[in-house]
C-alpha cells in the first residue's frame, strides 16, 4: 500500500521553511564578513547580481524538480530521466547533506554554548583586547564543551525532523522565523542608534570598486549558492512537499528576497556595532565569536543584546540544519521505505559520528591534516566548494538541456498561470539564464573553488 506523501499545510508554511533553510550561518556570520572584506557596497552589488542571474533561476529549477516529481533528490532525477547517472546527481546531494550537517552542527553548537556564556555574563570578565579570543580558544579546546553542545544541537535538529513535515518543520519554522526577524531588527536598531554607527554604515555602503576582481566575484557567486541552500537538493526536497496550486517562480522570488533582506540587516547590525566600539571589522571567521563579545561589553544593554544575538544565531542555524537532515531522511523514507522516525534517529546518530572528528579538529585532532586541511576544513571544502557548485551546475544543465523546456514549461506554469500570461518575458529570461549563463558562470566558480581557475588566469597573463 502506498503511504500518502507528506505535504506543507499552507503556502506561507512552505515559504517560511524554505527561507529558514536559506537563512543560516551563511547570512549572519559569513555574509557580513565577506562583504566587509571585499569592498562593502561594491561587493554587495556584485552579490545581488549573482543572486539575480544565478541564484533565482537555479532556485526556481530546484523547487520545480521537487514539486513535479514529489520525490527526494535521487528519486526525482531518476523519475525525470530514467537514468542512473542523473540519479547519481541526487545521490551526491544526499551525501552533501550528510557532510554539511556534520560540520555545520559544530559551529551551531558554539552558538548554543555562547548563549550560556552570554547568560553567565562571561564576556564581562574580559580585561584586555585578546581575552575574548583566549576565551574562545579555551572553550573550543575543551572536548566536552565541543561535543556536548554539538550533540545538543543535533538532538534539537532531530526532534523537529522526527515530528514530520507539517508538525515539525513547518510548525517550527512558523514559530522560529518571526522570532528571528524580530531579534534581528532589535539588534539592528541597537546598532544604528549607537554613537559612531555612521562609520559602520559607511564601511558597508561606500563602494570601493578597486577591491572587485575575479576572486571577489567568484566569492560572491559561491556564496549565492551556499546562502540559498542550492546545489544539494534541500530546496528540491522542500519543493517536493509543495502544492501544484502555488506558483514556483513567485515562491522562489520570495525566498530570495527574505534571504537577502536578512543578510543585509545582519550586515548593518554587526558593522554598526563593531565600528561604534572601534574594533577590527576584518576579523573573518572569528568576527562573531571573538569580536562581537568584546562589542557587547562596551555597548549599553550589552548583556541582554549578547543573549539575544546568540539565540538568533542558534535559531538561524537550526532552521537550516533541519533542511539538511530532511534531504537525507526523505531519501531513506522514499527509496528505502524506512519509517520517518527510524530514519530521523538513525541518520542523526550517523551524522553525529561523522561530526565528531570535525568537532575534535579544534582540540584533540588539531594537528591532524589531510592535504594541509584539518578534518573540519576538509569536509567543508569538499561539500561547499566542490559538491554544491558541481550540483548547481548539473541541475541547471539537467533542466535546460536534459529535461528540456518543452516538458519543463507546462509544469512551471501550474500555479503560475498569471505570470505566464502577464509577464511571459520573465519566463524567457529564466530560460536564457538557466541554459547559458548559469552553467558557464557556475563552471567558473567551480574551477576557482578547486584552485584551477587561478592557474589558468596566470597562464594567460604570464604571471
Ligand atoms: N543556506 C544555509 C546558510 O546560509 C546553509 C545551507 C546550505 C543549508 C545548503 C542547507 C543546504 O547558512
Write a structural description.
By secondary structure, the protein is an all-alpha fold. It has one domain (11-395, 438-461): Amino acid/polyamine transporter I, CATH 1.20.1740. It has 19 helices and two strands. β1 and β2 (373-374) form a beta hairpin. α16 packs antiparallel against α18 (424-449). The protein is globular. The mean pLDDT is 89. The chain binds phenylalanine. Phenylalanine (PHE) binds at residues 21-22, 24-27, 100, 226-227, 229, 232, 234, 320, 323-324. The site of phenylalanine has 15 residues, from α1, α2, α10 and α14.
Give the helix tally: 19
Small molecules (ligands, ions, cofactors) in the structure = phenylalanine
Using the 3D structure, state the CATH architecture.
Up-down Bundle
Main pleated sheet: 2 strands, antiparallel
Order of helices and strands: HHHHHHHHHHHHHHHEEHHHH
Mean pLDDT: 89
Low-confidence stretches: none
Strand order of the largest sheet: 1-2
**In whole angstroms, how far apart are the ends?**
65 Å
**Gyration radius over CA:** 22 Å
